Amino acid sequence: MTTLKDLLKQPWGQAHATPLTGLDTALANLLNSKQPSDDPRHLWLAALTSHQWGRGHACLDLATLQTQAAALLGWNDEQTSTLPADLHQAANTLPWTQGDASPLVLTEDTQGARLYLRRAWTAEQNIRQNIAQRLALPCDVPADLQQRLDALFTPTNNGEPDMQRLACEVAAQNRITLITGGPGTGKTTTVVKLLSLLVGTSSRDLQIHLAAPTGKAAARLTESISNALTQMPADVQARIPTQAQTLHRLLQTNSKATQLHQLATDVVVVDEASMIDLEMMARLLQAVPPTARLILLGDKDQLASVEAGAVMSQLCTGSLLQHQTVTLVHSHRFDAKSGIGQWARTVNADVADNTPALKALWNAAPDWLATLPLQQTIEGDAAEPDVTRLQLTSASDPKLAVGLRYGWRNWLALLDAHRPSKTTQTAPCSDAQAAALLKAFTEFCVLCAVREGPLGVVQLNAHVELALGLGQSAWYAGRPVMVTRNDYALELMNGDIGLCLPGPDGVLRVAFPAVDGGVRWVMPSRLDSVETVFAMTVHKSQGSEFTHVLLVIPALESPVLTRELVYTGLTRARQRLTVWAPQLGVLWNGCARRVLRSGGLGD
Ligand SMILES: Nc1ncnc2c1ncn2[C@@H]1O[C@H](COP(=O)(O)OP(=O)(O)OP(=O)(O)O)[C@@H](O)[C@H]1O
For ATP, which residues are the binding ones (predicted)? Predict the structure, then answer.
C-alpha cells in the first residue's frame, strides 16, 4: 500500500500547493486506504472530482481537464503546473470505479469521459430517467387548445411568433416544460394564462402548487402571481392559488422521514429554477408524480446554484428537453432602448468578443447608467479604491447620483422616527411601519462580486454603517440582516432579509416580511446565522430585485467575476444601475469569462 511517506515523494505530494481542500485529499487517501493504487494519478483524479463537486460541477470533465485544466479547475498556472502529465489517461485504470457500488463512476460518450462522485452520478441518472418517463407518458391535451389559446393571446402585429403563446401551448401539451427568459419577459404572465387554461378545461378542482428555491423568491412569486391574476375573470382567480412556498417546504426536505413523499398535485410551478442544484432537482422530479405537470420558470443566463450542477442551463441547452424548452426574449419591463436591457443583451451576446460593444455602451453612459470610472474614484493605489466617494448625498450630477444617502433616502427618512436621538424617544414601530421600511430598503442595494478585499461585501458593509452613522452597537434600529443558514424552527430561509427595529412594544426585534404581506417579529437573540446586509454578493441577490443597484466590481482580477455574475447583478436593477469599476479592464475581462460547469445533462 502507498504510504503517506511514499506519496510525498511522488507528484501527489504536491497537492498541498494547490487549492485542493483537506476534504478532497482525505477522500482520495480514504479510497486509497480501502483499495490501494500504486499510480498517484489515481489519487489526483479522486481529489479533483471532489474538488469540482465542491465548486459546483457535477463531475470532473476529463476532456476539458486535458485541454483547459486551469479554466476548468479555476487554478492559476503555477497551481496547474503541479498536476501530473497524462492525468486523464489514468481514469481508465482507476480501481475505484469498478462495480455497482463503486465510490466513483466513470462515463464515456461522444462528449468525452467524465468522472463522478457516485452521489452526483445517481442524481444525474435519476433526473434523466425521470424526465424520460414523463416524456413517454401521454398528456391530456384539450381538443380545442388552439381556440383557447386564441382567447388568451391577442395576435402580435409584427408578424413574429408569440413566444408566450408558444410556451403556453408547449406546457399544455407536456408533463414537463422549461420556460426561460430574462427579467420582465412575461414568464409569470404566461404561467398564469396556462393555469387559467388548465383550470378552465378541468372538470374538477386542480391541485396547484407554487414554489421557489428561497423564501425571497417565493414571496416575489406570490406577489407577481397575485398581480397577474387580477387580469383574469373572478371564477378563474378563485381556482388558482397565489401563495408560493419554498422548495424545501414543498419537498419537506427538513422532515425526518427518509422516504421522500410524493405530492398530491396536478400542477407544480417552480420559479427561479436556475437556482436549483442537482440533488434538489432530482428530489423535485421524484416528488412530483409523473402524471402531474411540472413547469420550471427561470433565466438560464443567470448564475447557477452555488451547489453542484448548472441544471437549468444544461437542460435548456441540451437535447433532453429540447422540444419542451421555450425561450422568451422580449422584455416588457425594459423596452428595446432601455439601458439595463441593452446591457443585459450585450453582456450575454453570443459573440467572440463583447468588449467593444460594452465599451461603447459605457462611454455613451446614458442617464440610467451612472458610471464611476477610474479617474473619478481613485486617489492613489487602485487596489485601495476610495469608498468615501459613496457618501455623496445629492444627485446634482446624474452620473454621480450614487450616494448611499441618496439611494436609501426614503428608507432613511422613514427610519429617522424610530432611531433614538438626544432629544427624542425611540418611537415603536407598528407592523405597517415595519412593512413600509422593509419595502423602502429594497429601493437600493449594493451588490459586490466578491466577499473579501477592499471592494468586497465585508468591507463595504462596515463602510456603509459608518457612512450612514449607524452601527454603534451589534444590534441597532435599522440594521438590515440576511439569514445565512436555513432555520426550519423559525421558518427562515438562507437569503431572507429582515430589519432590526423597535417592535410594537419598543423592544429591538427583527422584522421579516411575512408571506401574507405583513411582518414577523423575531428576537435578535434567536438569530444564530445572520450578517449585516447593506451590501451583499451577487450570488445572494438572486431572486431579488431593487429599484436602484450599485454593482461594485473589484479592482483586481478574480476568477469569480464572470459574464453570468455581471448579467445577474445588473438585471437585479429595475430602474437604475450604477456600476463602480475602478479598473475597467477587470470588468471587461469579467464579461468575457464564462462559468464553466461540467455535467452530463447538457448533451
Ligand atoms: N405580452 C405582454 N404584453 C404586454 N405586457 C406584458 C406582456 N407580458 C408581460 N407583460 C407585462 O410585463 C411585466 C413583466 O411580466 P412578468 O412579471 O410576467 O415577467 P417575468 O418574466 O415573470 O418577470 P420576472 O423577471 O419578475 O420574473 C408585467 O407588468 C406584465 O404585465
Answer: 181-188
